[in-house]
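Hey team,

Filing this mostly as a record. A colleague (T.K.) asked me to run one chain through the structure pipeline before their review meeting, and I want the input and output archived in the tracker in case anyone asks later how it was produced. No errors, nothing strange. Just documentation.

Input sequence:
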Amino acid sequence: MQKTRTQDVKQQHQALIDSEKQAIFDWAAHLGRRLTVTLLPGDASSRRYYRIRARSSSYIVMKIDPFIEQSEQLPFIQVRRHLTKIGVNVPQILDTN
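Output structure:
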């Protein structure tokens, strides 16, 4: 049976998701042994979101394909910084890579 292009793309996408999940597990290992990582529904952008559940805490990880050298220059980080300065309660950014 010959693979279709759609099947090939789906397999490549699943391999990417599996690789990202493993990287998130490795990064979040300090949170404890019982971690779950779940891919969340996305939007039309290239960003992918994952939820980490660790004990009684929950975290959101955003994975964005690299397109810029300096992650601190990403617009959502600049907007978060501005909102924090004016007293708006916004999610904390734990790490950028």
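Quick notes for T.K.: The first strand starts at residue 35 and ends at 40. Strands lie at 35-40, 48-54, 57-63.
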